[in-house]
Amino acid sequence: MPAESETTMADTTTDADTDGQPGQDGHDVYGHHPGLTGEGAQEMAPENVTSAANRLRELGGVLRLSEAEAAALGARMTDDSPPASPDHDQTMLINMGPQHPSTHGVLRLMLELQGETVLRTKPILGYLHTGMEWTGEELTYLQGATNVTRMDYASPLFNELAFSMAVEKLLGVEVPERAVWIRMLMTEMNRISSHLLFLATNGMDLGAVSMMLYGWREREEVLRFFEKVTGLRMNHNYIRPGGVAADLPDGWRDDVLRLLEMIPPRLDEYDILMTGQPIWRNRLQGVGVISAAECLALGVSGPILRSTGYAWDLRRDEPYLAYEDLEFDVVVGSYGDCFDRYAIRLAEVRESIRLVHQILEAMPTGDYRVQDKKVTPPPRARIDESMEALIHHFKIFTEGFKVPEGEVYAAVESPRGELGCYIVSDGSSHPYRLHIRAPSFVNLQTLPHMMRGGLLADAVAVISSVDPIMGEVDR
Amino acid sequence: MSQDEAPPDSGAADDADEGAPEPPTRHGALVSWSRGQEVVHPTRDTYLEVITTLHGEGFVVGVDLTAVDYLTYDAPRHLPKGIAPERFEVVVSLLSHTQRARVRLRVQVPADDAVVPTLSQLHPGLEAHEREVFDMFGIRFEGHPDLTRILMPEDWVGHPLRKDYDSGRIPVQFKAPSDAR
């Protein structure tokens, strides 16, 4: 393929230049910069200058590959071995992203292709890095939710929930029952909207453009409900340490019921539009297969883990809020391919609808936030009559409430998997350290494994089925 | 829930001698409780060993790996007796699906020799987290296959989440009077 070889040369040169001069002296195989911090290039180097250890990692050698696969790799797994495959010059390195419509944000993938086949993949991150963990250390605990909510912007309420649960564990406060159920209602609605967004973008990535319009349309209806409750379509800052920001507005029940009535028939339409369609199935079935063992080794959670048939859902297995009072199924797949991940998310929308029905039945009355004056700002009306309320209000909004020292980890099941929040407190009103365990960050690490040996056209389907949100990957 | 107190039903085999003065340990590493969560404090030498043993015990999922820079931490550190506080701490969260249990490991890492062994052979998924910790804190992971920056640009100088990292400021038009300093 002469045309391809030419591209190969051009591409390799470009990439190698950013690496410094890789392999110039034969030792510095990664072309490390001699800079102060001594770290090397983030890009994927061409195969002939990639160290054996790194190749092993990229190819999934650290996972338990089958013996045949390991043997096939074995020949080129020593550091002294000559440039990997004899037909090395037939491969080319290409960049996909960071500006690519189907990378779901500023995700950059470096792919090594042989013809149409993807040999190696390396996700290169950081294009959306804004230091949100650092920002979290600067904000008080009350302001903290405004920061974390912007991480996974497709499911902001889960970020707020994980953060609030961690802070509440540190504070040792018990959230009132109504707040717990409002949180469950809102996060389940958020799961619906997030999965609808997935269905929309998944359709769009595979060429089912009408699905994109339908998915966005239904998601917008859910966001309209969020706007009514929280004041904002996204980035709500609604779930806060101690409860929720405001009680549900008048008529919320009718709004929810209207949504619950509207969405299921639409899901049936999606089934007709996509699930049973031969083109849809051919594009997704058997594509991007991952095994349960690989998922566990990579720490993957959420729909990707469940698509392999491994039933693990924090709502059921480590119940938080009041999920042990609710009845729902953990949906699992069986093949671990893109189709299973699509079908699981579609089914999880139905499960969430089932959950919301139960939440509507059981929604208790009472306080929507904890009545602890040191944590909860007083209602506006009280400030006019009570000096103490004014002082508390002033203290909470200027200085913030103090959280006893300690460290804690809290995790929730977000639409993408386990979303964890690790907070270290030094007893002041700011977190000493705030770390978010972002499910997308971990799930992205499956891309090299899912894409290996697949077609370039399927790469888009695989990225889409991981459903990464770059806001939380880069934080 | 009161602080640092073991939950009443934490009947782990190693904690059987709760009343005895012996501090609780797990695989030779001291154990403490933080808000009802089990925290194991291995030293850097026993770190890999403890995690390998835990892996064999069923803690096969490496959920999270991060670090904390305790440089400006004013409050008491609440470490078990025998663990000397250091500037950095690498925090690893492990999960066992079969036991539905979590365990957190906190390793003290001195500032002048910020190196810990990598977990990427045992928990390949933590490889990216280790890169992030290297990027943000400058802690090196011995044996890591690809210890490069992951979030910051590769020519960045410094490690942004260190507490002595200057966060920078926006230049302003006016100047302080010359006798101010």
Characterization of the model:
The complex is a heterodimer of chains A (475) and B (181). By secondary structure, chain A is mainly α. Chain A has 2 domains: 6-124, no CATH class; 132-437, Cytochrome-c3 Hydrogenase, chain B (Orthogonal Bundle), CATH 1.10.645. Chain A has 20 helices and 8 strands. In chain A, strands 1-2-3 form a 3-stranded antiparallel beta sheet. Chain B is an alpha/beta fold and 181 residues long. The relative contact order of chain B is 0.14. Residues 1-19 of chain B have low confidence and may be disordered. In chain B, the strands form 2 sheets. In chain B, strands 1-2-3-6-5-4 form a 6-stranded mixed beta sheet.
| Tally of separate domains of chain A | 2
Whole-angstrom Rg of chain A: 25 Å
What is the name of the CATH class of the largest domain in chain A? Answer: Mainly Alpha
Average pLDDT rating of chain B: 81
Helix/strand order of chain B:
EEEHEEEEHE
**What's the CATH architecture of the largest domain in chain A?**
Orthogonal Bundle
The biggest sheet of chain B, with number of strands, parallel, antiparallel or mixed sense and barrel status, is: 6 strands, mixed
Q: Please provide the count of β strands of chain B.
A: 8
Percent strand of chain B equals 25-35%
Quick structural overview:
Chain A is mainly alpha-helical and 475 residues long. Chain A contains 20 helices and eight strands.
Topology:
The complex is a heterodimer of chains A (475) and B (181).
Chain A: H1 2-18, H2 52-58, H3 67-74, E1 91-96, E2 108-114, E3 117-124, H4 132-138, H5 141-148, H6 156-171, H7 177-205, H8 209-230, E4 239-240, E5 243-244, H9 252-275, H10 278-284, H11 292-298, H12 303-306, H13 314-317, H14 338-362, H15 380-385, H16 387-398, E6 406-414, E7 417-425, E8 431-437, H17 439-443, H18 447-451, H19 456-466, H20 470-474
Antiparallel strand pairs in A: 1-2, 2-3, 4-5, 6-7, 7-8
Helix pairs in contact in A: 4-5, 5-6, 6-7, 7-8, 7-14, 7-19, 8-9, 9-14, 14-19
Chain B: E1 25-26, E2 29-34, E3 37-41, H1 47-57, E4 61-69, E5 88-96, E6 101-109, E7 115-117, H2 126-137, E8 140-142
Parallel strand pairs in B: 3-6, 7-8
Antiparallel strand pairs in B: 1-2, 2-3, 4-5, 5-6
